[in-house]
Amino acid sequence: MEETSLISKLESSDSRGLHSLYTHYLQPFSDLTNPKKTKRSARANDDQKTLARSLAKKFLPFLNRALGILPKRLADRTKFGGDGDGEQLALEFFDIYRLCLDCLGSVSSQLLCKPYSVHVQRVRMVHCLEAWGRLKDAEAECFWVLERFKEIDFGTKSVESERNCLLPNAEKGGHDKEYGTLVVEIAVTLVKCLSTSQSKDGDDYRRIIRLVEELRPWFRVLDASTYEKLHRVLVTYLGRCAIFVVGEPAFADEDLARSFCFTTMAEYAMSSNKDDIYKFARRICFSLFSLQDSTATFIIDLLICVLDSLAHEGKIVDDASDIVYRPSGLFAKPPPRNRNWVP
């Protein structure tokens, strides 16, 4: 099928079956996207490079057009209808999206761009997956990209410990602010996905604690404006996760809840908006006072964590007159019990 016809169908099609047409048209990429797992000779490697160069020259304009259309179409759910057929059509579009991204990635060595630039397109797809509530798929794509980031050669010394980390090491590539912003954006997206999904799997929250700890050096790479924007989003969704973990009866692991709250309070303490930590602390305190099945030790530990953080903040802010800790202000009236609370 002609390239123009495929693009036209992608822009306006409301029926299924388009994925098979794209698969057929992009079949020449199969030798690159699904290489045989055998040791190749130098000649075979040269042949692969020649093939990649040829495919890039022929298909790159088509891939760029398709990847420009797909996020726009998937951004408007109303155009897919509200029934099961609309959902299935959207899933087919996501399959086409992945196919085009895989093809683009297979020829990335032939492109005049930074080594991580092709992954910007995949992050755009992640946000589309979020919009469609495909949170597990979005998380999987985020972790896939982070693994690819670890493989990038920035011409700096390899960091051995990176293998056991969720994020690439900031010592390798941290000089590039655009790259740093992308790493932080992906990590923040993972926290947002967990908050939205309200997973009851404790391992998901333990992984986020690790992620936040590894993320701190990356925030130092960002300029002030980008830092403030992304860190505010991070603490907002961390706060939602913490409230859920503390107040959810399904969580019997008090050590996890304690660790998650400690991590969240530490991030709030670094927020540029000092009011946020007080709003979050107030919410946590009321969640704790409403608990019936938790041990007194657990409740006291979290209260001490909250009050210590507030006391520390009261010492370091320049003008504490409006936000200094007052028991009557902290516990005066409980906020609405809303899982989607935003500080």
TrEMBL record:
Positions of transmembrane segments: none
Highest taxon, organism lineage: Eukaryota
Domain Separase-like TPR repeats region: 3-288
GO CC term (a single one): nucleus
A Pfam family assignment: TPR_ESP1
GO biological process, one term: proteolysis
GO terms assigned for molecular function: cysteine-type endopeptidase activity
PANTHER family per record: EXTRA SPINDLE POLES 1-RELATED, SEPARIN
Name assigned to this protein: Separase-like TPR repeats region domain-containing protein
Species name: Morus notabilis
